[in-house]
What does this fold into?
Amino acid sequence: MRKPSLILAALCLVTAPARAQDAAPESAPSPNAIIDMAPEKAWVRIPASDVLVMTLEPGPKGDARTVIIQLMPVPFSQGWVENIRTFARAKWYDGITVNRVQDNYVVQWGDPNYDNPEAEGEARALPDGLRNVSERHYSVVLSRVPIPENAPSPIQTCAAEDTACLSKIIDDAQAFRDQMRARQLRFPNDPYSHQTRFADGWPVATDLASFQAWPVHCYGMVGVGRGYSPDTGSGAELYTVIGHAPRHLDRNIALVGRIVEGMEHLSSLPRGSGALGFYTEDEFGKRTPIVSVRIASDLPDADQPAFEYLSTESDTFARYADARANRRDPFFILPAGGADICNIPVPVRRTADAAE
Amino acid sequence: MRKPSLILAALCLVTAPARAQDAAPESAPSPNAIIDMAPEKAWVRIPASDVLVMTLEPGPKGDARTVIIQLMPVPFSQGWVENIRTFARAKWYDGITVNRVQDNYVVQWGDPNYDNPEAEGEARALPDGLRNVSERHYSVVLSRVPIPENAPSPIQTCAAEDTACLSKIIDDAQAFRDQMRARQLRFPNDPYSHQTRFADGWPVATDLASFQAWPVHCYGMVGVGRGYSPDTGSGAELYTVIGHAPRHLDRNIALVGRIVEGMEHLSSLPRGSGALGFYTEDEFGKRTPIVSVRIASDLPDADQPAFEYLSTESDTFARYADARANRRDPFFILPAGGADICNIPVPVRRTADAAE
It folds into this structure.
């Protein structure tokens, strides 16, 4: 007997071909069906200046390999994000390689002669104008921590010298703590923070004691390689997560974006057999060359790819997140009743029109 | 300036080569250093009858590709585990292929002509003696739910008709609930269950209302593909997790083991571009053939690979888990203060001696 092809149908990106005799039982829509029904106004255009187009050398059979990275918006990690734009505009990334692929952890790319004990030549000089960003920018101070569950909540920051802004934050913090106490609100179950939530399209964790928020290490997030503290990395070496969310890296290293297309070109690369997944000398041939990295807004209009994310403040996203936490589509027999934030990936889609 | 090669040193399997001028600051041992210091008695031999040796066709450059799967012990999923031994002994798996690779989700292998809308030929007949296992075996009833934090706790089950055993469970449950109330114990933060813990080397979640326990979908866990409920799968199609833990599958599908060696041979396979990551007709050439699957105890003594896991009831494991949740080794500046269960992988090692 043939069974439906929906073996392990969860998380499907498209609906598998159904057969009349194998029709799924009637049930609630899947998370992806909910996304498909989203009204146009629930989609938010990603600014072209936040889109990086990273072109890898073609694959073994000549197939094109393009990876699209969405850079993180204000208020997170802007010093490093600006450095990445500086590297891209200086074409510094052109000709670097993927040097490290560690299973269930990260893929890392950079100058093979930089930060590498196996360096064969001289490292290329860094471009002018890079900022040295301090560790305190791994997280941001919140001006107002939202009540959990869908509260509208712009996250704001103060300049260090802006005492009026800072004292407003302190007042807000006190007011929020009082409110929490009065309401006895319970936080979602996150082992790594007091509360996780989505803000402006990004997964964020918060600490209500220090009143801080920070982006979290989910699959496909992009971060900045660094040496030992106090080094925070310049942006010359970047990595992406290719396994279970390494949340212990949160607030220990800068996150600057996420991969929104072409992830499979990195996640399926051969693993390195050296320490930390670096390719050993015998494996230098496995290093994937990066032909170029460009900011989409620097490309000719006709060549600019355009992307949208599903507003995390939209009703559709709330329904989608609920469906991820409580799968009621036909394959499932027992909804989980919860989900961790990295199991609710923010939907991103490519749009037909060129950038604004 | 060259910086140490310890960029993203977290989770390193070995210590990167250190240079005198780049010596790490003094700090607490890393999780891996703690494992290296484990006394021999903390390691538990995995029975050879629980070890599957899956040999893939050699890689593109003729490199051998062997994947080792540890089957799950009593009391979990034993009906399916026994079926898998039946398939292996009938050599039914020999010549099947990897048919599905879905990024950040699963790799799935089976008969390409079984459960496949693109089937080119007839599916092979199933071996005799397979059991049809019911959905209630996705979890087990606990005879005694442990106090969190390192309580010794053999998990036991009752036969449905064993009323004496069942009433003992009910009494124990009541006693446990009273104990919980008296102690006001707090559960670790798991969005998917009341409590997660390790039992006999495996990550387990528990529900204190229904008094059940079940294994959880972490990276590298192996499960049984199935059709729509009430089908529970025979074991003819297996999958492993190659991304963030899809915990919503817990209790919706049977877990039967985990990959303890050779994971990279599956996780780095090219992704399928069809629905659910199945290879499309154009991509049939990407299907990786599985040459053979054998139970280690069925191999000649000299050919039996031997493995040990770090006892999850050992002091070393407690220190290791604590270090995973609170990284104090040199790379880290801020310990997380917690970890989810899938971010505490159970250490497994190959041992030199042949099986017992």
Observations:
- The longest helix of chain A spans residues 163-183.
- The mean pLDDT of chain A is 83.
- Chain A has five helices and 15 strands.
